[in-house]
Every structure is written in structure tokens, then in C-alpha cells.
């Protein structure tokens, strides 16, 4: 096997109550990548279509992630990476994570899978470090493992994968405004009240319980964030109206996707998720704000192999 | 049916990472109570054996909890309550919760169970309010429901019951010192760092996941508290030594039971839990500190009916 073509999915991090620890994998939103063996050692990004991103290996998140893997596992060949970006950078649905995760998944496959998907997370995190300054795992973990992921701990890295209830769908609307992760981070307070924190960990426990018991209502009741959302949501136009309309149209709950500006909702069933999408679009249409809209089943498998040569 | 004799169990609240939201029910540590119908309306505490507690209904936690129930469900008779206290007040294993929960369970049974066990929680919480000033549910919920309980939210009250993995045992050591809940509360900081809070909700998620998947190691890894334990543990003699010896003797994890001074450990299997108990006792023997020690299976059923007349 010399070449692998893969689909690397978009992901929603934080999921309201699970700031910095929870994430979930989408099914039909993502990049395509081709990774192939090369006689020339090292890693080269040979093509990027659909985004203006650096080709230099050390400045590209997929390059950096790939190098982190090859630092631990010597290969007798080099690798070329082509990236067909579909996920917009800065959308808040794991654009950099998809590139980082796809690169290490592809190289691992071409090497005969010396690493488990879980073991690849730490390499992909190096791409995230380049992108945002912090080596977070809440997008790369669901991209690599599928379903929902919980980062129980970063030191040591301990990631729990949780299968999605079968009827769960995500709606994601991306208002076309620029919101840098670093700006979205800088508005956060470094100290929070113990009372809010207790409410938050009650909801994290509730969300995890709801996922295991496939209790859609409990999932919805737990999608609540009184710490980050009230602060960050003011950076996102129409946030309160979008959230309200999602609920009114049957969504289990909604919140900021990652650090925004995308807003996600979870629903039981495709029909409800599409109804929620329609209602969300209507708000931004009225506001004359350009947007992208996605409706996706939860992807329980993560990255998909499209072709092998 | 005119009389019910019941066993009302001790409980461990907080469980390290789950401050104010998690609790678990013990199997062989608890009070006995007799609740009987009476021709005289109202609630009377007719006997308390084993503790110096007020007999006046409005000053007794079981009396207050019983009145809260009868406030919502009129009865055509009155009730007498006898309490045989085995759980020491101020031990940190839910002494007041056992009395409150037992009273409402007994009256509900004599009335033909108009309320579900879950619906009884809010009445029993009124007893907790009398005991500690706050109507918390993290002891009364596991006493009434059995297993582990998660208080996802207080407003509205939303309690999730989680079955215990079958081989889980608790060891609890109670150093005979006085530590008032109000003192243990007053040392807490009202604000905490966002970083610690994130670590904490990662662990709450991990503990809930470990319980559902019966992953004993994950349960152990998640029994970690970097917010409350470092502050409160200085009030408990020998805490660090007890914690260290528990781990060395095979416990999955350990921490402060409720607001202390009892220290709990969870272990896989009775043998390990007993070994941990022996090692804990040795520390307090060396320190010449009097103590009580308990080893108990997790009780998945909560309050037990001992006799009906």
C-alpha cells in the first residue's frame, strides 16, 4: 500500500457543559486528504486546495502532527500530503484538528498501523498546538476515535470514548464572521465561582450518563453552560435568537461549537435536526448575515478510508 | 399495615471529584427505625436510642422531613417514629440523611407508596436543611435510591441513579474528632481557578463513565479532587498517610467522606477493601487516635424493609 485517500471529519468541541474536555465527531462535514509514500524521507505538503494555508511542513498543522509521529516511529520512506479543505478555518468545528488527525491517521495506515487510534491523539495534538498555542485534544480525539470523547485528564493523557445514541443528529450554523480562537480565549475569566463550577460538573456527569443510557432528554437537560457561554456568546451575532429558535423547533439543546463562531444544536432524529437548521437559517437570513449550515448524524467511527492504492 | 421497621443506610457524599453532586449508598452501616401509624394526627418522635438528639418534631431532622411529606399528602392518621442510631452524628457518612430518608420512606410505605423513591428526595432534603443549613441531596438521594446518585441540578431537582459495578466495596474510617459541617464549609473558597474546575469536570465525567462501563481502573483514576480535598484535608489528622496507605494496599482511590472527618476508599473486591481497612487502622493505632472502621459492599437498593406489621 502506497497511498491512502481519507475523509477527515469536522468535530464539535466543548458541547456546552464540557469546556475543554468533551467533543463529538460529525459524519458528512470534513476534509479529504491523500497521504502517499515517497522515496524522499521527511514530510512534504504537496497540495492544499480550498484554503490559503502554508505549504511549509513546520508551519502546517498536518506537517507538524506528521513529524511528531515520525519522531517516535522511524520510517524507511517519506510522506507526501495533499489536503482538500472543505472545513473553513476559524469556523469552530475543528478545521485544524481534521488536518492534524488526517495526517497521522494516513501515515499510521501506510506504516501498517503501529499505533492505535487512541495513541495517535498525542501526535495530532501537536498540530493543535501550532494552530492555537495549546495542545488541546477535544477536537482531534473525536476526529480519530469517532463518537463522543471525554478528555478525563491531560497529564497523563486519558481519553474516554463514548458511543453516540443512534438517533442523535447535529445541526451546525457558521456565521461568516471572523472570530479568532485566541480572542475567544482571551475573554474568559481565569477564576470562576465554586457554585457555577458545581452546576457545570453536575451537567458533565448528566451528559455522560445520558449518552450511556441513550436518554435523549437527559442529554438535552445537561447541555447547559453557565461559565463560558454567557461570556463568549456576545461575540456571536444573533446567538440568543438562534438558541431560542433551536429549542422551540425541538432541539435537545444548543451552544457554541468550540470557541465559535459556529453554533451547534443536538436533536433526536434527522427530521428535527433539519427543522432546527431551517429555523436557524431564517434568523440569519433576516439579519442578512451570510452563513453555512450543516446537518449531520453523529459519526461513531471517526476518519473514513475512501481509497487505498 | 400499621408499622414498618427499616434499615436506613449510611452514605458517602462528594466522592472526591463530585463535590455537592455525587453520593453512594453503603450496605451494612446504618440506623434502624420504626415508623407506625397513630390515631393522633401529626408526627411524634417517640424514642431515640444511641444518640442525644431532640425529640421535638420540628427540631429533629426526621420530624421535619416527615412534616414536609405530610404537607403535600394529607393523611387520615398520625405517625410515631422510633430511631435506633448507629451512625454517629458528625461522622461525615450521612447520619442526618439516614434519619430524614428513613422517616419519609417509612411514612410513604404506610400510606401505600403514593410517592416514588425519587419523589421522596425533596422531602428528605428538608431534614438536611435543618441539620446543616442547606437542603442538599447528595446523602439523602443515595440513601433513598441506592447505588450511586448524581444531582445533575438542584433547580429543577434532577437526580440520576447509577447502578454500582458489582465488585465495588467501600472502606470508611472515622477518626473520633469533632468536625462541624459548617466549619468544613467555611474553609472553602468561593472562587476557584477555571483550570482546576476543568480538571474536576473531566474527572466527574470519567467517574460516571467508569461506573456505566464497570471500568474499575477508570473509577480509580477519576477519584481525584484538587479543589476541596487540599483545603479540607488539613482538618483531618493523618489524612495524607491514610490516603497513601489506601493506595499502597490496592484501593482504587480515596478521599474525604462528605465534609469529613471520615475518610473513604473504594476497592475492587471485599478482600482488598478489608486489607485497606487494616492498613488504615494501623495508621490511627500508631497515632493513638480512636476511630471506627467500616467495610461495606455498595448497596444498590437503598433503605431496606426489615419487618412489616
TrEMBL record, chains A, B:
Q: Which domain of life is it from?
A: Bacteria
Task: State the pathway, as annotated in the record.
Answer: Amino-acid biosynthesis; L-threonine biosynthesis; L-threonine from L-aspartate: step 4/5
Specify the signal sequence span. none
A GO CC term assigned to this protein in UniProt: cytoplasm
Identify which top EC class this enzyme belongs to.
transferase
- One GO term of the biological process aspect: threonine biosynthetic process
Listed A to Z, the keywords are: Amino-acid biosynthesis, ATP-binding, Cytoplasm, Kinase, Nucleotide-binding, Threonine biosynthesis, Transferase
Which chemical reaction does it catalyze? Answer: L-homoserine + ATP = O-phospho-L-homoserine + ADP + H(+)
Write down a Pfam family by its short name: GHMP_kinases_C
In its UniProt entry, what is this protein called? Homoserine kinase
Q: Which family does it belong to?
A: Belongs to the GHMP kinase family. Homoserine kinase subfamily.
Molecular function (GO) terms for this protein are: ATP binding; homoserine kinase activity
- Listed EC numbers: 2.7.1.39
All copies of the GHMP kinase C-terminal domain together span 208-284
Domain named GHMP kinase N-terminal: residues: 65-147
